[in-house]
Amino acid sequence: MQWLHKDLLDVSQLSRSEVMSLFETARHFQEINERPVKKVPTLRGRSVVLFFAEPSTRTKTSFDVAGKRLSADTFSLAKSSSSLTKGETLKDTALTLQAMAPDAIVIRHWCSGAARFMADLLDCSIINAGDGRHAHPTQALLDGFTLYQEWGDLSGKTVLILGDVTHSRVARSNVILLNKMGARVRICAPRTLLPRTVKSWRAEVFHDLDEAVRDVDAVMCLRLQLERQKQGLLPDLREYASTYGLSARHLEKASRDVRVLHPGPMNRGVEIASDLADADCSLVLDQVANGVSMRMALLFQYMTRKGGEE
Amino acid sequence: MSRMDLLVRRAMFEGREVDVIVNEGRIVEIRDCSAEIDLEEFEQVEDAYGLQLMASMTDVHVHLREPGFEYKEDIRSGLGAAAWGGFGNVLCMANTSPVNDSASVTEAMQEKANIYWPEGPRLFPIGALTKGLKGDELAPVAELRDAGCVAVSNDGVPVKNTDLFRKAMDYAANFGMTVIDHCEDPYMAVGVGVNEGEVSDRLGLAGQPDVAEALQVSRDVLLAEYLDIPIHLAHVSCEKAVEIIRQAKARGVKVTAETCPHYLLLTDEWLAEPENEYSAMGKVNPPLRTERDRQAMIAALNDGTIDFLATDHAPHGMHEKEVEMDVAPCGISGLDTALAATWALVQDGTLSREAFDRAWVTGPAQTFGLPVNRFQPGDTADFFLFDPEEEWVVGPGTMHSKGKNTPLAGTTLKGRVKTHFLAGKKIV
Lengths: 310, 428
Prior knowledge:
heterodimer; A: alpha/beta; five-stranded parallel β-sheet; four-stranded parallel β-sheet; 11 helices; B: four-stranded mixed β-sheet; globular
């Protein structure tokens, strides 16, 4: 498939067939990750800047590994080591990076819209690795790919997204992607952790986990930021864990082959019971592995595209 | 017979062509245009053929940024934008650096205005309500009044302590100073200048709920009623607040309220349009609301629930707006565009002409006791000549304010001020 998009800002800009194409490309690259020598020359001579203005372990490492396995040169820039800490604006940082002529910039930023801001400014491809609470398209794609690998087809499946939806870019992108791929989406959280207009989203909304989990085919747990308690969004972690923490008991009501996902990092014993995170039904480590394959697919598509505009 | 100061010839006024005679700064007569007039009887003659005669406007909510932030705007440039924007009277807010909480700051502002614009636009500073706008101690209201302030306000930093706010209203009333309040519950309004709703949820931005504004409006209305003291509510933006004000007015509460052109023109959907997504040019406090709110503001201005308009002119450096939404300052530069943008609403029937005149001329002047020109003999000759047909594109080349931060940038507006007279003297 000829790839016409310059940037990846969110999954909403991708068609279903483009998502399927990414799944297929990721599956192809998955084989490379299983070889003794995990490297191909596909992107030799191309350079990717990993600009992470917000802390990240798995996404950044995943992109780094993905780039290196395709022989791209990857350069890391964190907020702490960038001029942003000296008061430089994002615009000037972006223009400075562009002057070094990268082929793509992967950006993680704490502000919603930061990836769009970069994309409007720069000629190279911008890949959004998470902007504020807005979008995390690569996570949604790797989640979708993981379920696709399990099921072959997401149509007709029911996926529950559980936890702090208000502050979650993962949830926003996954609601869009799962719907696009034909899945039914449920959302469950206390009202304090749901956006006010969540009822207008393409998802069924629940406040009771026992109800929400009934007959679902997969549960995506979201990480709870522990400081939410201080913001008055919940009384304490103990109560949250007992009312919204996913445990094996809840899964008895779910589909027999239910799968559990978590984008990480996990708060074991808070949003997910520790034994469940390690159980057979858990796809947490598959997500990590598939993350590399999906990001290889993305870097390949965006860095070898033949011009064209979105 | 001694010569009169000024004759404005052939201006369009209330659908007819008129001559305006001005002497000693006041309107002498407006009469149907006559071919026989003896031009020798006038010191100065201004040909206004094809131009509309309009009363100078008053803007009660302007940030002139001087002292302290002259790179955004200064009194010279701000009053220039006012003069070209059709404004003869300008009230400037106290959030300068230092804050306008002492006579020396007030006097310094006036001195600058007198140096650069001796004939006007007239500058009327608004003093701080609390020292340093910190919300802890009352500012010296008597001193500020004596120095020339016409009202007091804590500007964009609402006083959290309701008891202190009550005392501030009481104290200011001693000196005939109306309190202007920026209405938002400061604990609840923690968003980034976008309305809490579908747009903020979709874009993943922390929104400000309209109820945060309505709560503070309720508080202020109840206090004004309890104390029987006037209060003026700044830049009201939502239907909920309008309803509370409407009910309060029906009870006889001494509440007046303003809204701004941008709340009549735009909604939060502007921020979600593909070409504007996340553009901080639309980041303003209170935020752009929904279409339902926009319609409510128009209706309230037409029926008088909202007494008048103000620009909330908030100029910023472009580098401050060309950043991520979360970190950009709130504000829209409004003095240059307010007239043409709201005149368009009259032209398309959205606003009545009566509401327009009340919004920009009589309403604000009456509320703050400023000169007003109704074109009656003896009125101060404050007016401008307006070309309603001239089209112009909003942008750096056409704006007089240093602040080019406006969501209207790039749009074509119709109508330009060609000449502006204050007390019979040409200021531009």
